Amino acid sequence: MARLSDDPHWWRDAVVYQIYPRSFRDADGDGVGDLAGVTSRLDYLVDLGVDALWLSPIFTSPMADFGYDVADYCNVDPVFGTLDDLDQLVAGAHERGLRVLLDWVPNHTSNQHRWFEASRSSRDDPHRDWYVWRDPAPDGGPPNNWISVFKGVPAWTFDDATGQYYLHSFLAEQPDLNWANPQVEAAMHDTLRFWLDRGIDGFRADVVHLIGKGEELPDLPEGREDDLVVSIDEPFTHELLRRIRAVLDSYPQHPMMVGEVYLLQPGQTVTYLGDHDELHLTFDFRALHTRWECDAMRSVIATVQTEFAEPHWPTWVLSNHDRRRHRTRYGTDARARAAAVLSLTVRGTPFLYAGEELGLEDAEIPEERVVDPDGRDGTRAPIPWTTDADHGWGADPWLPFPPDSTGKAADAQIGDPDSFHTLYRDLLALRSANEVLRRGSMGLVAGDDASAHGVLVLHRRLDGDTITVAANFMGEPARVTIEGELLLSSRTDRPDAPFDGTLGPDEAVVLRV
Ligand code: NOJ
C-alpha cells in the first residue's frame, strides 16, 4: 500500500489532475459522471503517474453554474453519489498514494442555500447581513455600476419582498456572501473543518480574491464595468486568508489550498501567498491566455518565474473547465504535445485537466444541447474511455463527446508508443525519476541569446544535475547549439539516433546535459 509523504510541502512536488466529475466516468449509467466512476478509475490515475486529484464541485447544488452554486457545503449532490461514496473515493485514493482536493466556493452560495433563504426572508432576519444587501441608488437602480460575469447584466438583483438589492458577482442564483460578518467567516471555516475532519487533503478555492470586498463598493471606472472579477484586490482578503490558513495549518495532513486568484496584472497574484501564511499556491492564468508563440510564451514564463522566485512557488495551467482546451487553442497535435513537455518541465506545480493526457479537443455543441450559461460546454465534454460506440458511458452522456473520440479513447491510446497518453505517462515518469525537474532552479535562455529564432530553451539545475528543455515553436525544423543525451521528445517520428541539434516542427525535447 502506497503511503502519502509527510512532507509539509508535498504540493511543490506534486502534479495535480483536475477532474470534472460530471464528465469523467459514469458508474450508474445515467449519463452523468459520478464519484463511484472516479473511484473506478483511480488505478488509471496511478498508472498515469499523477500525485493528487482535484474534484470540481461535488457539493449539493441546484446546478445553475454546475456546482459553483452550493446549497450545502457539507454534503455531496445526489447526482454524484453520497458522502459514503466520497469516503470510499478518498480511502481508495489514499491507499494508492493519491491526495484528494475539493473545490470550495467561498465567494457565493446558491440562492437556494438555507442561509440565503433566511437572509432574503426579511430585513430583520439574523442571516440578513450574511449577504451583501444595499438600498437602491437614488434613481431606484442598482447601488453601483458593476456588471456580473456571464450574462452581462447588473451584478445586483432587486428583491421585491424586502426592497433592497443583493450582490451577485456571477449569476443571480449565486448571491455573494458577506465575509465582513464574523458569523459568515466562522460558518465557512466550519465547512473547511467538516472536510478536513474526513481526511480531505486540501482545496481549490474558487475566485477567492473576491471574498474581502470593502464596505464601500465604489463604481468601476467607465468602460470597465464588467471587469469586476479582475478588479477586486482588497487588503481585507489577505486578513481573511491568514485566518483560513490557520484553520488548514491546525490539521496533521498538511492540507493545501490553491486559490483561483483571477488577477492578471504583474505582481498581483503572488501577494496572495502572503508570508507563507495565506494560500499555498495560486493559479496563474497568464500562460493559459498566451498564444503558441515563442517570444510571448518566453516572456510569460520569465515574468512568472521572477514573481514567484524562491521562497515562492508558481503553478502551471494550460487547460481547465472554463477555457477552451489548449489542444483546441493551439490547433495541432504537435503543438499540444510540445506544450505538454513544457507543462511538466517548467519550475512549479502543474495542474493537468482530465483529458489533456488524451489530447482531447473541445466538443462541438449543437445549439439544442447547450447547457452552460457561459458557453463552456465544449471543454467539459465527457472523457471517451473505450472505442465502443458509447465510449464506456452506457447512456448518452449529458454533453456530446469530443471530436475523434474513437481514435482518442483511452483504451486506444494506452500502450501505443505514439499516443498522447504515452507522452504524458513518460513525462510524469521522467519527472518522478528526476528530482531536478521537480525541485531544481530554472534558467530561461533569453530570446536574443537563443541559438535559433522561435526556440524556447530552459535549464533546470540541482546539485550538479542539469536538464535542458528546448521547444521549437515554429512549424518548420530548427537548429540549436545545445547538446545532451535525449531523454524524451514530443515528436512521434523522431529518428532513433543521438540528438544532433535539429528540432522538428513544433517539437520539444528534454536533454540531460
Ligand atoms: C470560477 C470557476 O472556475 C467557474 O467555473 C465558475 O463559474 C465561477 N468561478 C463562479 O463560481
How would the blueprint of this fold be written?
Blueprint: H1 10-13, E1 16-19, H2 21-24, H3 35-40, H4 42-48, E2 52-55, E3 59-60, E4 72-76, H5 83-95, E5 99-104, H6 114-121, E6 133-134, E7 156-159, E8 164-167, H7 182-197, E9 202-205, H8 228-231, H9 235-249, E10 256-259, E11 281-282, H10 294-307, E12 315-317, H11 326-330, H12 333-343, E13 349-353, H13 410-413, H14 420-433, H15 435-439, E14 441-444, E15 455-462, E16 465-472, E17 478-479, E18 485-489, E19 502-503, E20 508-512
Parallel strand pairs: 1-2, 1-13, 2-5, 5-9, 9-10, 10-11, 12-13
Antiparallel strand pairs: 3-4, 6-8, 7-8, 14-15, 15-16, 16-20, 17-19, 18-20
The protein binds 1-deoxynojirimycin.
Residues 65, 68, 105, 170, 206-207, 260, 321-322 line the site of 1-deoxynojirimycin (NOJ).
Task: Walk me through what this model shows.
This protein is α/β, with parallel strands linked by helices and 513 residues long. It has 3 domains: 10-105 and 182-431, Alpha-Beta Barrel (TIM Barrel), CATH 3.20.20.80; 114-167, Oligo-1,6-glucosidase, domain 2 (Alpha-Beta Complex); 439-512, Immunoglobulin-like (Sandwich). The protein is built from 15 helices and 20 strands. Strands 11-10-9-5-2-1-13-12 form an 8-stranded parallel sheet. Strands 14-15-16-20-18 form a 5-stranded antiparallel sheet. It binds 1-deoxynojirimycin (NOJ). 1-deoxynojirimycin binds at residues 65, 68, 105, 170, 206-207, 260, 321-322.
